[in-house]
Amino acid sequence: MSIRIIEMPHLGESVTEASIAVWLVAEGDKIEKYDPIAEAVSDKVTTEIPSNYSGIVKEFLIEVDTDVPIGTPIVKIETEEDGEDETVEVSADSEDVQEEKSEEFINHINKEIDKEAEEQPQERETKSDAKQSSEPKESSEKSSARYSPAVVRIAQERDIDLKQVEGTGKHGRITRKDVENFDVSSQSQPRAEKAPEQTESHTQSEQKPKSESRPSSPVSHTSAGDEIVPADGIRKAIAKKMVQSTTEIPHAWLMVEADVTNIVKLREKTKEQFKKQEGISLSFFPFFVKAVVQALKKHPIINTSWDNGNIVYHKDINMSIAVATDEHLFVPVIHNADHYSLSGLSKEISRLAGLARDGKLSSSDISGGTMTVNNTGSFGSVQSMGIINHPQAAILQVESINKRFLPTEDGGFKTADMVNLCLSIDHRIIDGLQAGRFLQDVKENLSKFTDESNLY
Amino acid sequence: MAMMTYLEAIRKGIEEEMARDEKVVIFGEDVGGVKGGVFGVTQGLAEKFGDDRCFNTPLTEGLIGGLAVGLGVTGYRAIGEFQFADYILPAVNQLISEASRMRYRTKGDWIAPIVYRAPYGGGVRGGLYHSQSTEKVLFGQPGLRIVTPSSPHDAKGLIKAAIRSDDPVLFYEHKRLYRLLKEDVSDEDYVVPLDKANVVREGDDITVIGYGMVLNHALKAAETLSKEGYEAEVVDVRSLYPLDKETLVKAAKKTGKVLLVTEDNLEGSIMSEISAIIAEDALFDLDAPIKRLAGPDSPSMPYSIALEREFLVDEEKVLNAMRELAEF
After folding, report:
1. Could you give the ipTM of this predicted complex?
2. Is the entire prediction scored with pTM above 0.80?
3. May I ask the CATH class of domain A2-79?
4. CATH number assigned to the domain covering A236-448
5. Do residues A382 and A359 lie in contact, with contact meaning Cβ atoms separated by under 8 Å?
C-alpha cells in the first residue's frame, strides 16, 4: 500500500493553467487505472482526466473551479503497490503552505492557553487584555489570508491594503471592526497603481460593488434597472485572451484591396458540382486560406511568435480560423494547412466549424495555431482591425466581396469583384515593409486563380 | 402600573379584550369554571364573563380548532386554548386547511379572526408530551400568523393585538416563563404589533436573535459578556411568521456576527429560515459564518433530568457561543 499523487495534466500547448469543473469520483471511491476521475477546463476545452493508478481516492487536493498551474497535485490515490508514499512537495517559497503550518502551530498554542484559562476561570480579563492575551503575539503577523465578505467589501470601498491591517480576531483574523477602525492615512503606500481610478469610481457610483472579487478595472457606473449578468466560462476565457493580446502585443495594421473576379467565376462554375460530389458547400474562404498559406511559405517572418526576446519561427503552418457561434467565438486550427488542396481545406474548415457549433472541439483542435485568418466578410464587414490571437504574430481579416467599377487600360471601365484584406501584425517582430510584401503576395496568389483552376 | 407575571399579563390582556368586545369568547380543555386552565391563565374569566363566553370543551383538539373557525366566520372572535402545544397536531387540518385559507378562498368575504393559544417549551420536566416546540410544524403557512411574547409587557400587548386581528393567530406562550418573569406592566390599553421583531438590547460586537426562554438566557449572558468587553445586540423575533425581515437583517448587518438561538431542534427550525434571509440580504456585511445554537436533532424533549438538561439550551451554552463569536 502506498500513496500516489495525480497532477493536473498537460492539456495542450500554451495551456499553463486549468481548473477542475467537476469531480467524477468521490473521496473513498475505488477506481481502476484509466478511469476518468475529473473534468478539467482550460481555455475553452473540457477534458476528462484519467487516473494513472488503480486504488482508492484518498483526498482531493484542490477545489473545484479554481485555476491551478499545470502539474499541480490534484488528488491522492491509495494504491496496492508497495513503495514509498508520494507527498505533496513543499517548495521553500510556497508561502501558503508555510502559513498553514504556522496556523496549525498557533492552534496548538491556543489550545494550551485555553486549557490554562479553563483551570483559572475566576480571573476575568478586561476587554483589551482579553483580546490580546488570548492570542499569541506572532499570530497577528501571520494572519490568515481568508477574509469575511464584510472585510473584503470595506477594504475595497476604502481602498485598504489588508496586508497592512492588524487582525484582532481569532488567530489574528482581520475582523470587520479592524478594517472599519483602520486609519487609511496610515497606509504606508498608496495601493498599487490603480489607486486614482479606484477613488474615482467611488465618487461616480454610490452603489456597493456587486461582485466580491476585486475588479480588474473600476466598477462601471450602473443605474437602476441595469441588469448585471456574470460572464460564463468561455466568455471569461475570451476576455482573458483578448486582454492578453492587446496588452502584450503592439499591433500595427495594413489594408490592401484585391481583385478576386476570377475566384468568383471559378466558384460560380464549380459550386454545384462540388456540392454534389463532396456533400459540402464551396465557400470563398478556402481560396483565401490557400493564398495566405502559399504566401507564408515565402514569408516565414509572418509565421512566428515573440517569446521573451526570441523570435520563434514555426516550421509548421497551422492556420487558426475564427468560427463564431451565436454566443461565442472559437478559433480552431487547420494543422499543416500547406498539405491541403482547396477541396481538402474546404472539408477541414467545414469539419472544424461543425465541431465548434456543437461544442465538441477537443484540446488539439484549438491548439498549435501559428497564424489566423478571419472571415469577417461573412457578416458584411468591409474593414476591420483584428486583434492578434496570442502568441501568434499576425491575423488576416478577409472582408466581404463587392462588385466595383474599375478603370481599364484603354480608358474604359470594367466591373470587378473586389475584397479588402486587413492585416494586423505584431510590430515587435514584423515591420510594415515585410507585412506589405506579404500582403502583395497574398494578393497575387488570389489573382492567379482562373476559372480553370483545379480544386483538387 | 402593576407587578405582573408573564401568565398574569396574558390573562390581563384577554380580560381587557373580553370586556371591550362581547364577541370575544374563550374555550378549551379545563378552561372554564373555577379551574381556569391547567396553568390558570383563564382563572376568574368564567366568573366575570359567564359560562357562555368562557367554557370547557371535550378532549378533542380537532374540535377546538374547528369550533374557532366556525365562530370566526359567524362574527365571533374566538380564543381556542390548546392545553399544550404538543396537542395541536390533531387540529392541524383545521388550522392550515381551514383557518389560514379562509380569507383567500372566499376572496376576502369571510375572515377567521381566531387566536389559538398554546403553551410550549421545555425545562419543566414535562417529558415528551408537555415540552415540545411545535412552531416549526405550522411555520410557513401563508395566512396563519405565529407570534410569541418573551416578556410580560409584550405578553399583554401581543395577546390583545392577536385578539383584535382579523387573521388567525397562533399564540405561543413559553410555559417556563409563566411565573419566572415578573415586571411592571402598564394598565393602559396598549397593543404590541404582530409583525415586528424587537431589539431588546443594543450592542455592536455580535447580534443574538432568539425568542422565548433562550432569549432571556441571551439577555443575561449579554450582561456577563459586557463585563468582558463585548456588547451584544439582542433581538426578540416575536413575530415568528411572517418574519420581520427588515429588523432582523438590519440587526445582522449592524455587527456582521450573528448567533441564532432556539430551543427547538437544530435542523429545519425557524432559525434556519432566518439564517437564509440573512445570508441572502446581508452577505457583504457578514464578518463571520451565521451560527445557530439549538437543541440536538433528537426526537423530543427527554424526561430524565440529566438528559433534559443536555437537550436544553441554557445560559451557559448561550454565553459560550456568544463569546466564541465575539472573539472570532
Report:
1. 0.81
2. no
3. mainly beta
4. 3.30.559.10
5. no
